[in-house]
Amino acid sequence: MQQAPSASSSWGVAARDALAAALPIILGYISIGLPCGVMENAVGISPAIAFAISATLYSGAGQFMYCNMWLAGTPLASIVASIAFVNTRQMLYSAAFAPYFAGVRKRVTALFSATVTDESFGVNMARYKAPEPWDARRATLVNLFSMLTWATANMVGCLVGTVVDVPVALASFAMTAIFICLLVLQEATPTNIVVALVAFVAVFALKCVGLGGPAILLGASVAVVVGLVVSGRGGPWSR
């Protein structure tokens, strides 16, 4: 387990390490954030509000959802409920880092928890498990670099939305590509392989039966449960 940031660890070094770790997320967020900003412009959101929403709601899936649902005339209550349901997974991410943040100041822990996403979760967890040192300062900076990139990309996309016709459908592939990169970076342990396969099969099956919206959340939940079961058996599955 990595230790909390030490006094000798300078902010300059921490920022350099965090930026290097966050670079794949940054590039992905630019490609996804621009078309998301275009969609936000289509529903009447100003660039400043797009930046503010991206830095507070900070949910790519949620932001794409509310734009599409608003354009489709979905009632506001349904939009709120759908986004809240999709984002329930965020509560599990910060809890998973609790062992690494033991002894860290509460305001740092709160900031990290409020800014963790699917992508930064994968990057930071991989760094904590790597041989090289990683700490709460670097992990939080990864989150902040990613968040600022996402918010800025949304704002810029909103600015150019009125003059540039960006094919928003490309964002689906860009978001998928990020998850593929994070999956490839994971250690190929038996548990990780089982979780990846179960998640794929579960999401595919749920979509086939018509559960398009909740499919990813439910499929991921099934995979997490299976992963916990197989990892608790000991032997090679516990790795």
Describe the fold and architecture:
The protein has about 240 residues and is mainly α. Helix content is about 70%, strand content about 0%. It has eleven helices and no strands. The chain is globular and about 50 Å long. The model is unreliable at about 1-10 and about 235-239 (pLDDT under 50).
Helix-strand blueprint:
Layout: H1 11-42, H2 47-56, H3 60-71, H4 76-86, H5 90-96, H6 106-115, H7 118-129, H8 136-160, H9 170-185, H10 190-208, H11 215-231
Helix pairs in contact: 1-3, 1-8, 1-9, 2-8, 3-4, 6-8, 7-9, 10-11
Please give a quick description of this structure.
The protein has 11 helices and no strands. The chain is mainly α.
User: What's the end-to-end separation, in Å?
Assistant: 15 Å
Task: Report the sheet-strand fraction.
Answer: under 5%
Instruction: State the major sheet.
Output: none
Please give the count of helices.
Answer: 11
The percentage helix is over 70%
Mean of pLDDT: 78
Number of strands: 0
> What radius of gyration results from the CA coordinates?
19 Å
Uncertain segments are 1-8, 234-239
Task: Characterize the overall form.
Answer: globular
Q: Quickly give the structural class.
A: mainly alpha
- Encode the helix/strand succession as letters: HHHHHHHHHHH
